C-alpha cells in the first residue's frame, strides 16, 4: 500500500508543472520560446472558451417557448424592448442563464482546485462526499423539517461545510494527506447517501420527486431571489480562489520544498479547501448538486490550456459553458418536459469517467 | 434579490397590466363564459393574501392537483393543465364527464416551467392544491398574472374539495355554480347516509400498499379519510392516535392488526391489486377475514377516490358506497 | 505447496485453539442473532407464540402469520445474504490485497440498481421476484467493469484510493443514467426508491429460494479459495515460485465473488459495509490465514446483518429502519476508523 500506486490517477496535468527546471544558459532561448508558445495557447484557448460562453449565454436568453431574436435580447437588456419581451428575457431567462453560468463557473473552478490540491483526477466534490453532505442535509430539511426553497439552500450549504469540516478533522493530523482525505470522504459519502435513500422512502411520492430533481441539479427554478446571492458569492469567491491558487505550483513540489520556499503550507491549503467548499456550497444552494461538472472541467481545461496554473480560469469557463449548453439540451431533450440540467451533465460525465478509469488502467500503472 | 421586493414588483406589474387594460390577450374563443354569475373584479382569499382578478378570465392555466377538472366542472376549459395522477393524454380521468373542445397544453408536475406557463399567455393561474410553499407562489407571481394559490390550511396537498371548489369557483366568477356543485355532492353524501344508516359511526381504516409490501394508513384530514367521514364513518381510534407524517403513516407488516376496524379500505399504489389479495397478512386482518375489507382493485375507482375532486368523488361514491355499506352491515 | 502451508501454520503457534474458540463464539452469536430476529419486532409476540407458530400445529392466526410470513423469511434471507456478503468481503480483500475492498464499494450495488431500473422501466417487471434476475446480472456486470477498470485482474494489487474511487465513480456514473429514467417515469421512481434501500424485509421465501443456488455455489467455490488467497497474498512472483498460477487463482476467486455479491444484492438490495467489516473483525480474532477467514465468515456475516436488521426494527417504532441503512450508518465510521488507524495509506 505505498503511495506510488495512487499515482496513475494523480496529477491532473499529466506532466509535472516544473519539468523544465534546472536548465543551463544555452537552454534559456528554447525555454523562452516554449513559454511564449504556452502563453499563446493559453490566450487562444481562453478566448475561444469565452466566446463560446457568450454565445451559449445569448442563445439561452433568446430560445424558448417564445423565441426572442438576439437583437431584441440586447434591447431587453438595455431596457428598450416591449414589456412582454422584457418579462421573458429579464425575469424568466436572465436569472436562469446567470445561474447556469455561475454554477458552472463555481463547480468547474472548485473541481479543478480539489483535483490539484488532492492530486487526484477523481477527487472532485461529487465523489469525495461533499455533495453527499449537502444532499443529505437538504433532503433531511425537506422531509423531516418541511423546509422549502430558501431553507433547503441554507441546509445544503451547512451540510457541505459540516461534511468537509468532518473529513478535515478526521484526516488532518500532521498536515493534509490527499489520499487519506479522499478515502475518508468516500466512506462518509457512502454513509450519507444511504441516509438520503432512507429519507426518500419516508417522503411522499411528490416530495420524493421534488427531492430527486433537486438532487440531480436543476436551474429550472432559478429566479432573482436565488441568483443574486449566488452572484455575490461568486464575485467574492472566484477572485479569492484564483489568487490563492497561485500557491498551487509550489504546493505541488511537496510540503518540505514548499515550506523551504517560505510558503505557510498548512494555512494555504486550508484556505484553498475553504474557498473550494464555499464555491461548491454556493453552487449547490442555487441549483442543487449538478453532477459531474466539477469532475470533468479540470482535465478538459488541462487539455485546452496545457498543464500548469493557467488552466484554472479555463476550468471555470468550461464549467460555465458545460452547464449553459447542457441546460439548453435538457430543455428540449424530451418534449414538454424541462429536465433538470444534471441529467445532461451526468450523461456526459459518466462515460467520460469510465474512459478516464479505463485509460488509467491501460497505462498499466494501477 | 430581496424576497420582499418580489411581491412588490409583481404587484406593480399587475397594476400596470390593469391600467393598460387586458385587451392584448387573444380573442375569446367561444368557450368563455356566456353568463358570468359574478361581477368582476372579484377578490379571492388565499393563504398568501387576497387576490384580485380584474376581469372574467379567458385563458386559465390550472397547475394544482385536480384544478383542471374542477374548472372544467364549472364550464371553463383551461388552456394549460398539470397531470398529477399521470393519466396521460389530456390528463382527464374517466370520472370527468366533460371533454375538452381544445385539449390543453399538459404541463409537468415536477417543476413549474414558468416559460411554458408564460407562453400560454394566461390571465389566471390556478394552484389551489399543491405543496403550497411561499416560494412556489412567489415564482408564479412573477408572471404578472393573478395567481390563486392554496386556500388557508391547504399546505401539502391538503386542500379540501370544498375549499378547492369554492376558491376555483370564485376565481372564475362562477361562485353560484360552484355552490350548486357542492350542494349536489353533499346531497349525494346525505342520500348515501340516509340509505345506509349502518355507515353512521362505523369505524374505518383507509390504507395503501407499496411495492415492498409495506402498508400505510391515511390519517385524519387527508382526502381519503374525509371522504369516508362524509359518509358518517369514523377514523379508527388506533390510527387517529398514531404519529403522522404528512397525510399518511407507515404500518409495519408485523402490526397489520392496526388496520382492523369495522371496515378496512385498501388501495394498491401503482400496482394491480392481486398482490394485496394474495398477501396472507392482509387476509389475516380480522376485518378482512370477516369479509369487511374493501379492496379498490379498479384503477379508475381508486384514482377517482384519490382525486378528492367534486367529480372524482361523485364517481367514487357511486362505485364504493354499496361495498362500504355491505361491509358495515357485517360489522359486529 | 506443503512448504507454504507449513510456514503459515508455524507462524502462528496455538492458532488452532484460538480458531476453534472463535468459531464456537461466532456460532453462538449467530444463534443468538437468529433468536433475536425471530423474537424481536414491531409487533410484540411472546416467545411461546413464536415457538408455537414455528413448531406447533395450531391454527393459523394473525400472530402466527407474523412469525411465519414476516420474521422467518427475513431471517432466512439475512442469513443467506449475510453469509454471502461476509465471504465476498474476504474474497474481495484477499484478491485485491486491499483492506478496504468490499462488494458495495466496488460498485456492484449500482450495477444491480441500473439493471433493476431497466427491468422496471423497459421490460415492465414489477415484482421483487422479477428484479432478482436483473439485479444479479447487473451486479455481476458492474463487478467485471470495476474490477477490469481498476486493474484487479492484472497485478492483483490495487491501491485503496484507486479502488475506492473507481467504485464511487462507477456508482455516480450509473446513478446519473438511472436518474434519466426515474425523472421521466414517476411510477418507476416509486418502485425503485423502495428497492434501492437495502433491506431483508418485505421479501418472501421465494426470493431467498431464487438467490440460494447462486449463493450456495459461490460459497462452495469460495471455501476452496483459502490456499489460493494465501498464495495471492504473497505477491505473484513468490506465489509462482511456490508453483501456483496466480491468474487462475484470481479467476476462481473472482467467479465466487461475483456469484455471492451479485446474488445477495439482487435479493436484498444494496447492503454496504458487511463485507468490509467481517474480514477485519475476523483478522483481529484469528489472524490473516484465509483458510480460516473464509469458513469463519460463514457465521460472522449473517450474525452481523441480523443484528443490524433487529436494531433497525426497534429504533423508530412503529416504523423500521432498513438493514442496508443501519449497516451503512454503522459501517461508515468503521471504514473511516480503518483508514485512519491502519496504515492503509502512507
UniProtKB/TrEMBL annotation, chain B:
Family: Belongs to the bacterial solute-binding protein 8 family.
Keywords linked to the UniProt accession: Signal, Transport
Gene3D superfamilies linked to this entry: Nitrogenase molybdenum iron protein domain (3.40.50.1980)
Lineage, opening ranks: Bacteria, Bacillati, Actinomycetota, Actinomycetes, Pseudonocardiales
All residue ranges annotated as the Fe/B12 periplasmic-binding domain in the record: 59-328
Entry superkingdom: Bacteria
GO process annotations (BP): iron coordination entity transport
SUPFAM superfamilies assigned: Helical backbone' metal receptor
Designated name of the protein: Fe(3+)-citrate-binding protein YfmC
Gene Ontology cellular component annotations, sorted alphabetically: outer membrane-bounded periplasmic space
Signal sequence interval, chain numbering: 1-27
TrEMBL record, chain C:
Membrane protein topology class: Multi-pass membrane protein
Keyword Transmembrane applies: yes
One BP annotation, GO: siderophore-iron import into cell
Gene3D superfamilies found in the cross-reference section: ABC transporter involved in vitamin B12 uptake, BtuC
Record's GO cellular component terms: plasma membrane
InterPro entries (UniProt xref): ABC_BtuC-like (IPR037294), ABC_transptr_permease_BtuC (IPR000522)
PANTHER family: FE(3+) DICITRATE TRANSPORT SYSTEM PERMEASE PROTEIN FECC-RELATED, FERRIC ENTEROBACTIN TRANSPORT SYSTEM PERMEASE PROTEIN
Protein's recorded name: Ferric enterobactin transport system permease protein FepD
Name of the encoding gene: fepD_3
